[in-house]
Structure prediction request, 474 residues.
Amino acid sequence: MIDRRALMIASAAGAVAATQGLPIPAMGQTGQKSPSRLLIKGGTIITMEGAGVLRANDVLLDGGYIAAIGSNLSATDATIIDARDMIVLPGFVDAHRHCWQGSIRHAAVDTDLGAYFGNILAKLAPHYRPDDVYAGTMSSDIEALNAGITTVYDWAHIMNTPAHADEAVRAHRNSGIRVVFGYGFPNTSAEWFYESKKPLVRDDVKRVREMYFTASDGLATMALALRGPEFMSTLDVTRSDWTLAKELGLPVSVHVGIGNGGVPYQSLRKLRDAGLLFEGTNYVHCVTLSTEDRKLIRDSGGHCISTPSVEMMMDFGIPAINATLAAGMRPGLGVDVVTTTGGDMFTQMHAAHQVARMQAFQDKAFPPITARDVLGFATIDAARTIGLDSKIGSLKAGKRADLVLLRADRPGLSSPADAIGAVVSAATVADVDTVIVGGVVKKHAGSLVGADPVAIARKASASGAYLSERAAKG
Ligand SMILES: [Zn+2]
Prediction:
């Protein structure tokens, strides 16, 4: 008899293994063996394929993929995860985060964008050592995995030296999260901002791509995190950076529409005039774009990403959830900076849900969004914005086995009549029981598997203390 309350795992033959991952194969880091078959039994399943919720259904995972979803599935050689008191859903997709900031988290909670630039980018970033990038990135990845985020887009504008790039990639590989690695620019001096005449370091972009991103179907893929007109490179440099992306076949991400200060840059118009509106580009924030700008993004096959908590906290304006929908696109959500906000998608879902509905009640041009919309923004829509929707973001046979199991046997989530509404409005990180990335169990029974969160947090804290001290010296 499986003890559901203790969330034990039993083999299909009925042998009970006492929790903490016992027959679960640990970790999916580089070089580790392929995941075995897992059968998630009896869960309330939110597939994000269609509107419905499947009650008392099973999900069979095999070789890192979803093999089947249905009732009463059997697989004699599979390890069973009892999900009778669980809500099973796709892993969350964080479409935009600067992972290196995991070692300086909460350093800019009460600041606006100007102070963030002055304190974080101007004072702290130049002092980052490769070790600090590793510590911060690993801390961000583990925080994300613990919160049920199985994929993160890392907008890594801390490529101060080649070793900084190496350490960022190494942290992602060791954490085992699925990542789009957005190679960015060195954050070493004002020369890289403010009408910057310095293009991306072409040789290192190529080196990193060849060294780490040649496998066609690993957990990590590469992209370019570019400054563009608003963040702020000259048009010549913008053209050079975008040309490099096209030459190497790497998708582009760029910040646009950031507060009233972003409007004069006219980013979309400049990119259009320069022929740089590439299909698949993701545009981050989009808060103060015009209706015409949004049409340019839509018609060029681009995507909009919102990081609603940071956008509201740092005076960017009203997050463009409704505006993106009105333009015929669906936004993805991102955490952005843990210097200001929490690093989980529940926080972002709450912010998006609340601000978009409030805006809709005040402006009848917008229909109120639903919890289903919001869960989409944090899963399948986010996956689309970073070019991974064919692989992740929903539960469907053939997709990668990236899932989250939330405990629904506690007061906050117990017996929800509306499972999607419960996840979006009431779930927290404390409810995240099991996290699976590519078929590999990264968290089980509420504990991370194969990672030492205390050691990782201590390393990040030590890095943050060093950086603060160094920045104080000027
Ligand atoms: Zn950002």
Notes: The pocket of zinc ion is lined by residues 96, 98, 155, 255, 284, 336 (CB under 6 Å). The domain at 102-385 is CATH 3.20.20.140 (TIM Barrel). The chain is about 35% helix and 20% strand.
